[in-house]
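Why CopC domain-containing protein? Reviewers of the renewal asked for a concrete example.
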Amino acid sequence: MSGFRIISRVGVAALGAGLIAALLTLNAAPALAHNSVIGTVPAAGAVVTAQPTLISVTTSDSLENFPQSTGMQISGPAGAAPPLYYGDGCATVFGPTLETEAQLGEPGDYTVVWQVVSADGHTISGDFTFTWQPDAAQTRAAGSPTPQNCAGVNAGSTQAPPTDAAAPGASGSNDGMLSDVLWIGGAVAAVIVATLVTLLVLGRRKPKHPN
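Here is what the prediction returned.
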């Protein structure tokens, strides 16, 4: 076998190894993604006609029960002056679900703002809205003009605090997930560069011919 063929085959093998490593890195990407919301009760944008009692957010991974970083605030109806708040601002963790008890007041659009710590240690938060259209038989809560703050959680604003995983239809940033994407991209680039360098070095080597 000629030296040229040997170099060609070694180069192809190196390139193949680099591509396999890149694919394995990309396949590992889902495991690096942070926790995210998979559902809420009431559903975001839903029309509710009976007192929901329990309001909840369910995520794709387990949550930590850290009272100092956990809370849920319900406010509405939209446009009320001053805005009214319902429930005590506290929330309880059950596996991947965060929930609180609350009775709603006058008809209109309501906003739920939540915050909790995910099993990966990231604080995640978000907000969603739904419409409350009770019939005449439904009991209505009076609400409070003062935001309810549970264990120091910053739930006094209708704006969700910074988050590592945004909920569907919710506000928030994706800084944590963006950093994962950048890390994966850097790893893939490093594999490709290493493969190209290997090919360059092999291409410059001249095969030795026997005397």
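The chain is about 30% helix and 25% strand. This is the kind of structural detail the renewal will allow us to pursue systematically.
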